[in-house]
Structure formats: structure tokens, C-alpha cells
Amino acid sequence: MELHEKVLEILRRLKREYPNPKTALNFKTPFELLVATMLSAQTTDVHINKVTDILFRKYRSISDYADAPAEAFQKEVSSVNFYKTKAKNIQGAARMIIGRFHSEVPKTMEELISLPGVARKTANIVLSNAYGLHEGIAVDTHVKRVAFRLGITKNEDPVKIEKDLMAITPEREWGNVSHLLIFHGRKICQAKKPQHQECVLYDICPSNNI
Ligand code: SF4
């Protein structure tokens, strides 16, 4: 099977398994999604949703984040890994959005990655889930592992993996690819004990015996 065909088949099967591919992070505005995504590195979405459930009730506007005393804001997110750096970046991003982008989360990759602490993964998640725009494919640890095991990339660097996935996936699917691989990585193709026997991709996966 050609690689393009294989990817389409993978997506077809995964869509059947996970019919509603979207981010598990809770948010109501693009800025809330940006905050949740920035907090989520190295932390589970379940935990982030608990933290943001309280945070979003207290911090309503972008200015609330920008104007909060640094120490007080750090405290709000102190149960999250690397909270000091994340808090600093979120407040820096809030100030930059107010000062440079007229208080609106930008809608382009170039502008988003100019915000402190925002790399392509976060930018892709915000563009896709808040605005329905697709400039690339968000590559997290699940996407990286599952794509590698499925043989649709040979790279380990997220930026190169993203390029590989973009080259072999139709643009209309860019928003779905990441969610589908993440859902599959969490439920079946786990890092330590992949459930090959339960996997709908078993017959087309070169790693079905690892
Ligand atoms: S067959 Fe195994 S390694 Fe391949 S995608 Fe399924 S769970 Fe992952």
C-alpha cells in the first residue's frame, strides 16, 4: 500500500473509532484555549481542566491575566508542572496580545509563535480548535509515538514529523490527524504497553509485535 493510501486508511479507521475528534481541553474563548494549551505541556488534560475550571471563573478578560501580580498568578497554577515559567509566559502573552494584537489572539502561525512560550504545537492547537484554521499539524508525544510506530514518519523531531505528516495527509484532514493519533495513543497504542490485539490498525502496522 502506498504511504498516501495507508494514511487515508488509518484516518478512515480511526474516525470510526473516535467519531468526534477534538481537543479534550475545556475553553470558551481563543485566549482560554491558549492558556489551557500553554499550561498543558507535561501535564494531563484532565488535570488542566480542573485547574482552568477555577482559573477561568476568576480571570475573565485578557487584562485580568496581564495585570495580575506575578506571584498571585503563579499560585493559581502552582499544581501544574513548570508553573513558574508557564505563568510568566501566559502573562507575557496576554500583555503582547493587548499591546500588539488589539487584544485578540492572533490567527496566523507567524504571529502566534511570536508570543512567549508558544511554539508550533500550541499555535496549531489554537488555530485549529479555536478558529478552524489549519496551517500545520500539532505534534505531541502521542502523535510522535503513534506516527513512528505506524511507519508514517521516520523522524523523531516534532517539526520534521509535522512536515512528514503534512506531506502525506490531505489538507482537509490536518485538523483531525492530531486528535485521532492522540486518542489512539491514549487508549490503545500506549507508550509502555500497546494493545496490539485491540488495535484496528493491527494488519497495517509494522510495529504490531513490539
Ligand atoms: S498495532 Fe500496536 S503499535 Fe501498531 S498502532 Fe496498533 S497498538 Fe500501536
Helix/strand layout:
Blueprint: H1 3-17, H2 30-40, H3 45-58, H4 62-67, H5 70-76, H6 83-100, H7 109-112, H8 120-131, H9 141-150, H10 158-168, H11 174-187
Helix pairs in contact: 2-3, 2-6, 2-8, 9-11
Bound molecules: iron/sulfur cluster.
Structure description:
This protein is mostly helical and 210 residues long. The chain folds into two domains: 3-22 and 137-204, Endonuclease Iii, domain 2, CATH 1.10.1670.10; 30-131, Hypothetical protein, domain 2 (Endonuclease III, domain 1, Orthogonal Bundle), CATH 1.10.340.30. It has eleven helices and no strands. It has helices spanning 3-17, 30-40, 45-58, 62-67, 70-76, 83-100, 109-112, 120-131, 141-150, 158-168, 174-187. The chain is elongated and about 55 Å long. Iron/sulfur cluster (SF4) binds next to helix 9.
Whole-number total of structural domains: 2
Helical segment count: 11
Hetero ligands: iron/sulfur cluster
Measured on Cα atoms, how large is the radius of gyration? 18 Å
Q: What is the CATH superfamily classification of the largest domain?
A: Hypothetical protein, domain 2
Straight-line distance between termini:
21 Å
CATH class of the largest domain: Mainly Alpha
Indicate the overall shape.
elongated
What structural class should be given to the helix and strand makeup? mainly alpha
CATH topology name of the largest domain: Endonuclease III, domain 1
Main beta-sheet strand count, sense and barrel state: none
Succession of helices and strands = HHHHHHHHHHH
Q: Assign a percent range to the helix content.
A: 55-70%
Task: Indicate the proportion of strand residues.
Answer: under 5%
| Overall pLDDT score | 96
Low-confidence stretches: none
> What is the second-level CATH architecture of the largest domain?
Orthogonal Bundle
Number of strands: 0
